[in-house]
Please model this.
Amino acid sequence: MNTIVCIKQVLDPEIPPAKFKIDPEEKQVIPPPGVPPVISVYDERAVEAACRLKDKHKGKITVVSMGSQKAADVIKHAISMGADEGFVLQDAAFENLDSFGTAYVLGKAIQKIGGYDLVLCGRQAADWGAGEVGSILGEMLGIPVVTLACDIQAVDQTLVVKRIVSDGFEVLEAPMPCLITVSSEIGLPRLPAGPRLMMARKKQIPVWKAQDIGAESSKLDKANAHTEVIALSVPTRKTECEIITGSTPGEAAVNLALKISKLI
Amino acid sequence: MDNHKGVLVCGETADGKLAPVTIELLGLGRKLANELGEPLSTLLMGSKAGGLGQEAIAYGADNVYVAEDGLLDHYNSDGYTQIAADLCRQVLPSIMLLGHTDIGLDLAPRLNGRLGGGLAVDCTALSIDPATRLLVSTRPVFGGNAYATMLARSARPQMATVRAKTVPPAERNDSRQGQVIPVEGKIDPSALKVKVVERIKEQVDGVKLEDAEVVVSGGRGIGSAENFGMLRELANVLSGAVGATRPACDEGWVPARLQVGQSGRVVSPKLYIAVALSGAMAHIAGCLGSKVIVAINKDKDANIFSVARYGIVGDYKEILPALTAKLKELKSV
Model:
């Protein structure tokens, strides 16, 4: 079974909000110094889902990440988990693409790789979080799409997928090839074992430019973007925290109880 | 020349009635349509959709398109995408609104992929720019730590999914006039590539996290699965639910479904008690909508105090038992 996983490198969402700064002019986030970017949490689960299928059914896992040269780090992370190879899609023309542009570039790379049974994406990115790229990509590739998977089993040529809905889940049967977006309920990603970690670290990750995947410049032209961000702002929070005290921790707790009992 | 006109609301039904979010979208859609001087339409799917046509008109629709097909009684991505895409190609709406619901989350991106429109998801504010007459959508990004304002200059339809309870529901007026128009064309069952074989409702013990009016959440500082018992006691006294940060779930102290935050559940209770958690961006994303946040943390500089209304600086193990006991006493009075 051959799986292609699309992954994204993002700002680490586990930072304290005080380190989160934006450039309102450029409508961009300013990466906090000294905080390395990470694989987007859902994408890591998508890699985990691919590894579980490979554990059972063998096959090959290829990962692709559109971003900067640094995206090689998340490709190596995926390889250390169990992926076989990966490609960074980096080109000045790929910067700040909208969801359609991103799906187009990923689609071109996927067509170049070819021979896939399954394409996996995280349900949404941990940064802009639109949750659009997977579905658009599936439509572009002309394959069925299942979103929000929490379990994927391969039975003959069919994938049995559990997907999350607000009051429980649905069980679906999807033919291959198809595209599935993975939710965090699929479970924790594996911790890479030492030797795989070493191997992944040494691996050379090829970088594909627009011409390598045959991406047409008109599709990457910002003038043809489907959506445009016209403003980015950080909301000001006016919360003033009242610190409740007491002569002992227990007394502070009693004072807090008196405050909050009025709220409910 | 752009010949796209009007606002189309993709409707949802629940228990044979219009879903609350659809009534909200009809109110919003009416307002946007009036500003543009264009009609408001809605699409209703399912074998009994026609029976709701007059109701949708009463809530503001000029045209109600009904796709009455048993294959649409339950949501399935392939069928809904096909019907909605075909209708959009026929009606050419300028704006299409969906709820940011189970259906909208799946349908909107896929439909947009098929139609080539411009989509903003999970919007909290929508308006028409008077100069350009374009739809301007605002949505939380970076887990609610920032807001992005977006528009689609030329891609059509301009699509948005709107969070439930963002806008007030439309007012019902049974004297309103409108048309109910059957959607031509049936679904070819062989076009449904992905089959829904089962729908399972999750049984939850006690109060469901998303529905709870009080949530007591713990972070890495709780230290063990056993210690979460103290949080559970406090939650029980307040008839609330227990939540946790991602690190606490990753440690296996509580099940992953209790995770509050960007990659977990988003909650908006009346009272959110954050215990021994620092307040990372990803966690704050899941609880910012709470009416009142209370923080209990050893570290007076912890970020959680910057979003809290009340706080105690100290060891939660010395605070929670007294807090629980006092609240129990106050409750019994």
